[in-house]
Amino acid sequence: MNKKNRSLLLGAAFLMATSAIGPGFLTQTTYFTESLGANFGFVILISILIDIGAQINIWRIIAVSERRTQDIANMVLPGMGFLLAVLVVIGGLAFNIGNIAGTGLGMNVMFGMSPELGAVISGVIAIGIFLIREAGKAMDKFAQIMGSVMIVLTLYVMFTASPPYGEAAVKSIVPDSIDMLAIVTLVGGTVGGYITFAGGHRLLDGGVKGVEALSEVTKSSVSAIGIASIMRILLFLAALGVVAKGLSLDPKNPAASVFQLAAGNIGYKMFGVIMWAAAITSVIGSAYTSVSFIRTFGSVLEKYHRRMIVAFIVVSTLVFVIVGKPVKVLILAGALNGLILPVSLGVMLVAAHKKNIVGDYRHPVWLTISGAVIVVIMAYLGIDTMAEEIPKLLK
After folding, report:
1. CATH architecture of the region 3-394
2. How much is the average pLDDT of 81-100?
3. Which InterPro entries match (predicted)?
């Protein structure tokens, strides 16, 4: 493997992982740790296995077909690619408003400035990355640096919190109870919506494709889940250390209270750095991937895709600064996100067995079966979530 490919594979893995590690990721992990205790370790373990199954399937099929997801979907069923693109762009835009809000909160904690000003400065930084001549390389490097910073700081807080490692290890394998909703929430937050496609599309843009690249693509896809999972496990242990001491987390911002209770004011400032890093990398990943879903629908879109990414970030920032976080839109986007993974993965599994898409490539049976199981489970729970959320929006 040459140096360029190694850098691209690592960059794609970090882009996907840091897209997953956003404000919602931090909140979900601490919330479930407080409610489930050490049993949450089992939830993390199962969700990691599901994440790997879904992501290997999707990245391999993107690579071997040498096409983006929406183009594969249109070949499987005309119009399906356009539907997927609409779902991804709506969900990506709505969640990007939340990501921008996260950058503002991070800046507020670090420097005491208003969240709105912090969001604008962060938006400008994100836009600046896409204005650089080698935007792809800049995005890869930025994701790697921010991802490493988050892991190192969380590792420090974990040690400071002194969690019960033995109990966490035992309950991760033999839990007292199993929370299915928590498993689905973690899977949706790691590989749901646009997130799993971030790295797959990045590899395609970088020229890592074809049957000969499958080994590298598979390793990169697993590495991406590994990076996100390391952050999840460290945050879980940090939160568990705080909760095990009988301390209560602030329900308004549980992740911030973990860092503050474990490491005092320094920990709180570290939370600001982590929140900002998590949010801005998610802003970049969401904008890049959402636009990658529509750029192939016309030569004009392809030509000006970088300007569209910039516009995506600008709109997200303006909506947050002027309107705030539109709660109902975020709720609906979350429900839609739950449906994107089963639809897209289902389409990919069908595509994996069509010669006009993958040629002579034979998709492993175990990947097809595991992928089909994930589709059924996530479809059922995604529809169930939609049934719950839509009546709320109509009130």
Report:
1. Up-down Bundle (1.20)
2. 90
3. NRAMP_fam (IPR001046)
